[in-house]
Specification:
There is one protein chain. Helix content is 26%, strand content 26%. By secondary structure, the protein is α/β, with parallel strands linked by helices. It has two domains: 203 residues, Quinone Oxidoreductase, Chain A, domain 1, CATH 3.90.180; 142 residues, Rossmann fold. Helix 4 crosses helix 5 and helix 7 runs parallel beside helix 8.
Length: 375
């Protein structure tokens, strides 16, 4: 069938909306009409060239929710009319990682940036409507399309009585930030936590630290609007620089430093890791969930003696170490109960044709999260 979607033709480049053909679902696949899609910084990394896909054109979007309009036979029993949230990391359910509760590291992730079906690198679900040229899917889903076809390994079925416009954020930013604090950072009651960068991911690290019982949550961002928002959603303090945050953390801990610093800046640089390491106590943890230029090979400005003698730890965090099939559903219930804030994260909604404006607003520091609302 025909659909419309936002694609990148080259990098650096900008998103443009074009007519596309989308395959009918094969066995193990479903077709979904999108209701809403979050505008994540990772999709902007495609436009800047920080992330390089296996093929151009490449259709963006990986944080979305919608209603199933077509379903073939599949092992999850998903059928037409079901409401689903996309998981940007698929889970097969039986590889070593899925079997040991690490679904975010599923072996299917090896094909994420090829744009093709996992089992056939020559098979593409999207094509240009006019020419038939293959179009890659961002992380196998491409939620910047009005309708998309995906494997059932990339979705989680959710209750129909919860608004999908809010739930779409559970597909990436909420799990990534919340999990960075709760799972990767190990925040405990009484801890002092620094969150470096309060965008769509960082604001949820703030929420996660608050839910885990941190006594002091220090949000760091140069944008006043974001600092204010962080305090509305759980931060006890909000400052402009890491130097201020480090000083505050030491003040709160008798000179020791933060228990964990979570790095959620928009584009990570090696110096960010150095600042984070300087801010934590002995035995503390730096959690890095931010992305930058994936070809970057510069060394981190970190003292190896600091790691050995003070037992400091740098912990990478992919999707906040979340298991989508469990964590998404429990976050739905946290939202229902009013504990997890989702509506408050959405600064502005856009139409699909306004996708380029949405990313300009992100760069201008106007949004915590922009969301594309489909008609």
């Amino acid at each position: 069938m025909e659909t419309r979607g936002a694609i990148i033709r080259e990098a650096p480049g900008k998103y443009e909306v074009v007519d596309l053909d989308v395959d009918d679902p094969r066995e193990g696949e479903i077709q979904v009409k999108l209701v809403a899609s979050g505008m994540c910084h990772s999709d902007d990394h495609l436009a800047t060239g920080d992330m390089r896909p296996g093929i151009y054109p490449f259709a963006g979007g990986h944080e979305g929710a919608g209603i199933v309009t077509g379903a073939s036979r599949n092992n999850k029993g998903i059928k037409e009319g079901d409401h689903v949230i996309f998981s940007f990391l698929p889970s097969c359910g039986h590889c070593r990682w899925c079997a040991t509760g690490q679904q975010n590291l599923c072996d299917l992730g090896a094909g994420l940036m090829t744009g093709a079906r996992w089992d056939d690198p020559t098979s593409f679900r999207l094509k240009m409507a006019e020419s038939g040229q293959p179009v890659g899917q961002m992380l196998g889903i491409s939620t910047f399309c009005e309708t998309t076809t995906v494997t059932v390994d990339s979705v989680v079925k959710v209750p129909k009585d919860v608004p999908l416009e809010a739930l779409c954020l559970l597909g990436c930013s909420v799990g990534t930030g919340w999990g960075a604090a709760v799972n990767s950072g190990g925040v405990e009651p009484g801890h002092t936590t620094i969150v470096m960068g309060v965008g769509g991911v960082g604001i949820n690290a703030v929420q996660g630290a608050a839910h885990a019982g941190a006594s002091h949550i220090i949000a760091v961002d140069p944008v006043p609007f974001k600092r204010t928002k962080a305090q509305e959603l759980g931060a006890t303090d909000a400052v402009e620089s890491m130097a201020e945050a480090t000083e505050l953390a030491k003040k709160f801990t008798n000179g020791q430093g933060a228990d964990q610093t979570i790095v959620t800046v928009g584009v990570i640089q090696p110096d960010h890791a150095g600042e984070a390491m300087a801010s934590i106590r002995k035995g503390g943890t730096v959690v890095i969930t931010a992305l930058g230029n994936m070809a970057e090979t510069r060394l981190l400005p970190v003292s190896l003696a600091d790691i050995t003698l003070f037992q400091k730890r740098i912990q990478g965090s992919l999707f906040g170490e979340s298991n989508a099939n469990w964590d998404v559903l429990r976050q739905v219930e946290l939202y229902r109960s009013g504990v997890l804030k989702l509506d408050e994260l959405i600064t502005r909604t856009y139409t699909l044709d306004e996708v380029a404006q949405g990313y300009q607003d992100m760069h201008d520091g106007k949004n915590i999260r922009g969301v594309i609302r489909f008609g």
